[in-house]
Each structure stands twice: as structure tokens, then as C-alpha cells.
What does this fold into?
Amino acid sequence: MEIEKTLENLHYVPIFLFILIPTTFIATYIIAVTLGHVEAGFPYISDTATYPPESCIFAQIINMAAATMCVVIYIRYSHTKELSSSYQFNASLPKWNRAALILGLLTCLGLSMVANFQETNVIVVHLIGALVCFGCGTAYFWTQVSLDLIKVVCSYYLHPLGCSIKIAHLRLSLVVSCTILFIIGTVTAVLARLNYHGNNPRKWYKADGGWELHMASTVAEWLCAGCFCVYILTFTDEFRGVQLKRPKILFKPCRLRTSNEVLNESQDEVPQPKPPTTII
It folds into this structure.
């Protein structure tokens, strides 16, 4: 009997993301400031990845991070699904779990869009990607801590099978912070842009107008991104007890053909010689 192989040590995946994403942000920031592409301080994360070579580095690594985040979201979805079916939780939990899966995958898509479509090239797609990433990401975290709009939050509901009560408190505080920071960052970004009359938004000075609002928006974005990374890190403890089975490939019997059938089909396709014609 074949022994099914499983993937263990899955708790290293959120740790890897927690290290990879902030390191990428800091590295591209240092390169952009060194090359004079942005001013030191608090530029938007996207501003530090607008021009090459930092844009190339940012796009490559963030695409890898988005793919890895899809794995984290799928593991979290499968884990919650297993707990729900094994312990007969509230009937609304599977629905919220599926909604969380969709929102999580949309977050990864938005992150990839931000990385691949720089604001100086395709600004509309870049802004859509940013809104999808931060908006759906915040909604995803709410679905992770909320079982529904009225009843207890999901992390508390899974306690003690899912996470500790301290982690549940931490997640709730993180998702509240993400929501507040997302609203502040979005509103101040719009207001700052309306008051801006400079030439290069990547180098926003006080004399350009709307500088205070711009700083509030950029700081909120950096803090929100940090909360995202910390939230992903909270999955570490739960993933220690999770194993992932390798996928299997199954063939449909109706699609399988014997070698004789293939041989007969190939012979049928060979054109038969025409009978000789007699010329009188």
C-alpha cells in the first residue's frame, strides 16, 4: 500500500512572507532614495518602485509573494473547512470561509497588479490594484475574525481548536487598525491630490500643496502594510499542526484508450490506394 506523502512545517510559509514583503519594501526604498528617484521620508510604497532598477526588483519579488500568499490563504481555508466539518460548527461558517477565500485571492491579484503596473505607466490599473489589494485585504481579515455581523468573531469561535485567545485579541486589534488606516489613507490621498500643484508627485514638497495630507496618506499606507504582514504572521502557530497532502492526478476512464484502438484509428486515417483505371 502506497503511503501518502504530506508537506509539513507549513508554519514557515507565513514567516517567510513576513520577512520577504517588508524586506522588499525597505530594499526598494533604499535604492530609490540612493538613485534620487524619491525623497527620503515617507513616500508611497509604489513611489519607491516606479523606476528601474527598483521597479524590476519590486515586481519580481512581490509576484513571488503574491503566489506564496495564495498558498497561505488556501491552507487557512482548508484548515477552517476541516474544523467546521469535524466539529459541526455554526452553519454560516462555511459560507464565510468561502467568501474569505475569494477575498483573499482577490487581494493577491491586487498585489500582483500593483507590482506589475507602475503608476507612471498605467496609473488606472495601478490604482485599481491598490484599492483591490488593501480593500479586499481588509475585508479578508474581517471575514477571518468575524463569523457574521452580529455573533461572535471567527477566531474566538475556533478557540481553543483554532487559535489562542491572545491571538484572537491581536487579530481583532489588527483588523480594526487596518480598517481605520485604509480609510484615512484613501481619504487623505484624494484630498492631497486635489490640493497638489507640483510637477513630480514622487518628489512631493511642502510648496507643492497638500503636503500634510500627503504625509498622512503615506504614513497610513506603510502602517497598514505593516499590519497586513503582522496579521499573516499570526497564522504561524496554527500552521504548526497542519499538514498538506500532495495532489493526485486522476485519469477519467472514458478518456483512456487501448493501444489497439489507437492503432486502428491511425490505420483508418491512412489514405487507401485508388484502384487502377483502364484507359481505352
Observations:
- The chain has nine helices and two strands.
- The chain has one domain: 7-249.
